[in-house]
Amino acid sequence: MCGQNPAAAAGRRSFLLRAGAGGLLLTPLAALLAACGKKDGWPEGMAEIKWDRDTCVRCKMVISDRRFAAQLRGGPKETVFKFDDVGCLVFWMKEQADKYPWMAEAATRQWVADFNSKSREDMRWLDPKKALYVTRTSPMGYNFAAVNTPMAGTLDYTDMRQHILAKGR
Fold first, then answer.
1. What crossing angle do the helices spanning 86-95 and 157-167 adopt, rounded to 10°?
2. Model's pTM, two decimal places?
């Protein structure tokens, strides 16, 4: 800056200060707008699953293996139930139907992890009733995993549910 016009240098400093102040004012606005969207990749309405900390409502096992996780949310209080295995979801819904009649309502939402998701950070979630199911060793031994694309041996939700209920536990 040696030999520069003092007025030009002052103008540059003024511009930089204004630009910096504008950026500082826009930062909270950007944060608020970002908060309005989906949080950390979870589908709209789905509660975050805290891997290795949250437990399955039915079997009380810690939810660790993301490939088999499931969730149900609904009722007047938007109650959330988390599961470590789609089999636990199937049995729990059958066992709790009288206590939570809202589970049969169309507004009740369900999600099951897509077995083919790349990682916990890049999860895809499927509607259990629209997903297809393949045989895979699962945490509770119900041995079904949800997938989005047909492949050899896939079952629909109704057939998968019948197999799980027939197996028992």
1. 80
2. 0.74
